[in-house]
Design brief:
The chain is an all-alpha fold. It contains three helices and no strands. Keywords: Membrane, Transmembrane, Transmembrane helix.
Length: about 90
């Protein structure tokens, strides 16, 4: 059950990060920003969990939740920003 909660935290944090990235010129609309941010949050959150050695279904302590929030938020922000930047560069041609 803890692993499921970790995934939900990563997806929600990524969606928030994606919407923050969407506030820039790289925005693609709130729905697409949310979806791409959720995917980015999930991917980077899982990578961060593997790199830091935190157990995937580990205890819900402050370090694990903080790691999930930061990893998910940053992952969502970066992926949304990069995809928006690529989209804008392709549209400019």
């Amino acid at each position: 059950m803890d692993m499921f909660i970790n995934l939900i935290i990563q997806i929600i944090s990524g969606a928030i990060g994606g919407n923050l990235a969407g506030l820039s010129k790289q925005g693609m609309g709130s729905g697409l920003n949310t979806v791409i941010g959720g995917v980015g949050g999930l991917v980077l959150g899982q990578i961060l969990t593997a790199v830091t050695g935190m157990p995937a279904g580990g205890a819900m302590d402050v370090a694990a939740v903080g790691s999930n929030i930061v990893g998910g938020g940053v992952g969502g922000l970066v992926l949304t920003f990069v995809i928006g930047w690529i989209k804008n560069k392709m549209a400019a041609k």
